[in-house]
Design a protein that fits this description.
15% helix; 14-stranded antiparallel beta sheet; disordered N terminus; 348 residues
Length: 348
């Protein structure tokens, strides 16, 4: 896509002078690793230097997953999904990584720097800009082996989020051998997932029950020693989480499971009043691939609130007794929207 329409949003640092990005249409779905056009959120991209990239995104107001949240704030994790897709776009469009080359996110970190950037009046779409810088790189093009990206996001002229991602790449043949070896080391053939009753949508900050991805094996909460335990219980036909086929549990689904487990644990611990708390931070280290055939256990432990009021919740996902994902979700229990100034108003 050639950018010919300059941005007309609120004044801010992104995109910088001389870089023109548009929200006119989305990028080709293959660049964003999406099968459905409606699941593509990146609208444009431009390259500055060899290690400098700018992207624009917009989340549909009526998206079945990312609009299923409290009405007075956009979901920061929706913009995080746009930032994830932005990585794919910059790799394929600007860095020379071929579409189809297997790679994985080994670690992601995001922090909402200004929750008010996500406040809205119910009529505006969530849109903004992402700037990524390649902090480290091993190899180039189809020979790339690893990469570290550092990013910042701006929404409505306000600095909204900081991001970082660690990526690992391999050839398709190497990936196939690696996955076969991994599965051979696990008792997959004898595994059977435990039936789980999904939690109430309100307890995890959702309204649509289909968007609940965690559940309990019985009627009682699985808590011991201050640790809340639950199981992955997602709809296997969910249009957003299963936009295309996977040979493992997809990363975005596991991150959403982390978020929901953190919210449920914080509600049960009395750290937040209800599931409407805003998720304002996420750290996740992906240690292994999660298999569909076995229980994926979520363990969430609520920490003491920080000076800024954010409640940290440590979350570990385990399968076959071993950690698959280790990380933390930060929740802001009392976010109250303030009317944006004229200079910083959201606009679509």
């Amino acid at each position: 896509m050639t950018s010919t329409i300059p941005h007309t949003g609120a004044p801010g640092q992104l995109p910088p002078q001389g870089v023109e990005l548009t929200f006119e249409q989305t990028v080709p779905r293959s660049l964003a690793h999406r099968r459905q056009v409606g699941e593509v959120f990146v609208t444009d991209s431009a390259q500055g230097s060899d290690d400098d990239f700018h992207l624009a995104f917009q989340i549909p107001r009526a998206h079945s997953l990312w609009s299923d949240q409290r009405a007075d704030f956009h979901d920061p994790f929706a913009s995080a999904e746009a930032a994830r897709q932005s990585i794919f776009v910059l790799l394929h469009r600007h860095v020379g990584v071929p579409v189809g080359l297997p790679f994985s996110l080994q670690r992601i970190t995001l922090r909402v720097t200004d929750p008010q950037a996500y406040a809205h009046d119910g009529t505006s779409a969530l849109q903004g800009y992402v700037h990524y810088r390649v902090a480290e790189r091993q190899g180039k093009g189809s020979d790339v082996v690893s990469m570290v990206l550092e990013g910042v996001m701006e929404i409505g002229g306000r600095p909204a989020m900081t991001l970082s991602a660690v990526l690992a790449f391999m050839s398709q043949d190497d990936y196939d051998v690696f996955r076969a070896f991994q599965r051979a080391q696990k008792p997959v053939a004898d595994a059977r997932p435990t039936p789980a009753r999904r939690l109430d949508a309100g307890l995890v900050g959702r309204e649509n029950p289909r968007n609940v991805v965690i559940g309990l094996p019985g009627d009682e909460a699985q808590s011991a020693g201050g640790v809340f335990r639950c199981l992955l219980a997602a709809d296997p036909h969910h249009p957003a989480f299963f936009d295309h086929e996977y040979d493992h549990v997809p990363g975005p689904l596991m991150v959403e499971g982390m978020r929901q487990a953190a919210v449920a644990a914080a509600c049960r611990a009395g750290a937040i009043a209800d599931g409407r708390a805003l998720a304002v931070g996420c750290e996740a280290a992906f240690l292994d691939f999660a298999e569909f055939e076995a229980d994926l256990v979520h363990e969430a432990e609520v920490g003491a609130p920080g000076a800024d009021g954010r409640v940290p919740v440590t979350v570990v996902l385990r399968q076959f007794g071993k950690p698959i994902v280790e990380g933390r979700i930060d929740l802001l229990p009392d976010a109250t929207p303030r009317p944006p100034s004229t200079a910083r108003a959201h606009g679509v």
